[in-house]
Design goal:
Blueprint lengths: L1 H20 L2 E8 L7 H10 L4 E8 L6 E8 L5 H10 L4 E8 L1
Antiparallel strand pairs: 1-3, 1-4, 2-3
Length: 102
């Protein structure tokens, strides 16, 4: 009986990281009307506060360009539509530039 329990525990330890990562995804959003110096940080903060978002990086080609936001998130908790809505509700219309799963 001890061997069976030990085997189950070992399998559980190996399976835990796989199940924990099952919902991880990355999306890249193009965020419009974000040309000022403060807009990038506002967009980043807005997206970082969406439940399920694990990390956000924001880049901008030049001071007058749209912002590109790369977001790592848990797909089991949030969706691209939720993140787009959050940015848009703060005055920064967004659209998906690229999405990847895993």
């Amino acid at each position: 009986m001890k061997t069976g329990f030990g085997m189950l525990a070992a399998i559980g330890l190996f399976a835990a990281p796989v199940t924990a990562q099952a919902g991880e995804a990355t999306i890249v959003l193009t965020v419009h009307h974000a040309g000022c110096v403060l807009c990038g940080p506002i967009v980043k903060s807005t997206l970082a506060h969406v439940k399920g978002v694990n990390g956000v990086t924001v880049s901008q080609a030049d001071a007058m360009a749209d912002v590109t936001a790369t977001i790592n998130y848990d797909a089991a908790v949030t969706s691209p539509d939720t993140m787009i809505k959050a940015a848009t509700d703060h005055g920064y219309p967004a659209e998906v530039a690229k999405a990847t799963k895993g």
